[in-house]
Amino acid sequence: MFGIAASEEEVQLQLMLHQMFPIAVGPVLVTALHEWIVKLKSINRERGLFPVRVFEAELDRRWRRSFHPIADRDLRAALTHMKLERTREFARYRYLAAAAFARLFPAKAKHASA
After folding, report:
1. pTM of the model as a whole
2. Which of 45, 50, 96, 98 is the most buried (most CB within 10 A)?
């Protein structure tokens, strides 16, 4: 699409940017997702497919939005996401702790949210 060749893995990564997680998430995959975003930004800058500021802002928004579903699936993957994003937002740590608690104690987590 738009003349951007993508491997099967990159197609899976692109789906993650659209909140579709068809494969197991782990730290390696999160790093690959981050690298895919860097690659897309580079391709766009080289070819001028989309306005740079708008395109990169959208990719950054999708990257940030991917944190919660990643945290819901894998603690180490979420920590990798935070490291790559270079964030120290308390809300992210709080969400990560709640997601980990929910995986460890599913029955208690349901009662806590009720």
Report:
1. 0.85
2. 96
